Amino acid sequence: MKVLSLGGAGDMGKMAVAALLSSPRVSGVTIADKSYELAQRYIQLAGSYKVSAVEIDITDENKLRTLIASHDLVVNTIGPFYKFGVPVLKAAIQAKKNYVDICDDWKPTLEMLQMSEAAKAAGITAIIGIGASPGMTNLLAVLACAELDDVDEVTTAWGFGNTKMGKKLPFFISKKKLIKKENKKEDRKASAALLHLVYEAIGKVPTFQDGKLTEIEALKEAEPLVFPGGGRPMYACHIGHPEPVTLSRTLKAKNISNQMFLTKRLTTELRNYIGQIEKGQMTAEEVAIAIEDVLNSLWAKFYILWTVLKRFFKFPPMLIALAKGLKNNQKMRVATGIKYQPYGEIDEGMDGLTAVPMVVAAEMLLDGKVLKKGVLTPEESLDPEEFFSRYAKYCRSDFTFKDVVIKKIW
Length: 410
Known about the structure:
This protein is α/β, with parallel strands linked by helices. It is 41% helix and 22% strand. The chain starts with a strand and ends with a strand.
């Protein structure tokens, strides 16, 4: 099977390519990226006969559609998805090719779900939002809710946590090796990931309350998150990810929220920057660059401290789902989380934690494990136990489902 990796030279994309090249089901991978030189350098360093590259501007609809048509499957890591999610999926539907992505913006998620009938008519399956959050958080929520007869509340959350990291994939190329020093002299541009963070922290964001989808202010403080065995409660706030939008379609829960736990200090800093955008004092791009500077500064100062703290103090996993409800007419709480993640080098390994789940979903599609057609969310299309069993192999070859997923019931 021949796979097209859109944005394959980027931080998330190159990790996806490394995982795809290790898959026996994949006969070839085409890196399609505007940074053709970067893609060629990856190919040179990876040394795999399976990989090739093509330069593309994805706003060129005809070229994009033609390129997709020459492949069996599309994996899309080009962000921010509020700009590029809908048009790329539209091209995949027109080319009648299966599709997976890591879309983490809620508004385009709604638009893409509305394209499901067109995808069915084209005879394709498109799995959207199968990264870390959304993606694995959705499947963790399904596992948690399966323990309950009646679900009152579901919380998916992500942030600073203690999750062990696996070994490097065979075709992984570090960013330091990939990007030559002279390329760093170019004018700075805001990263898609941080633009997304800004986007999901502005204005109103979705949540599911009392059986209805509604909107609340982004970054609204939530009750501290408690993960059993995960140390003291973590400061948390609501953030604009798609989980409340999609999980409310499948889970019979009265309340569903998505939350972020990145410490009170960083959350306050983000609120201050968002306030400057709302006052017209800064643009989203300027704020994304400023946040990157703050994170780099803090990380340089506290990396060693954070490493020590994780060793001697308890923290929840980086990705968790919490469910409250009834089991046999008794109140019960269930917590699920990720205790092992694939190797990664970007922001505590978020490249591995985000890109590998997408590749696992792609493999399940290629193996005929997903037969339903249309535009689907992870919880609509993927069996959680099979998914995490496959995911475990990217953490360590001898790992199973139980090695990577925590489940606590109390």
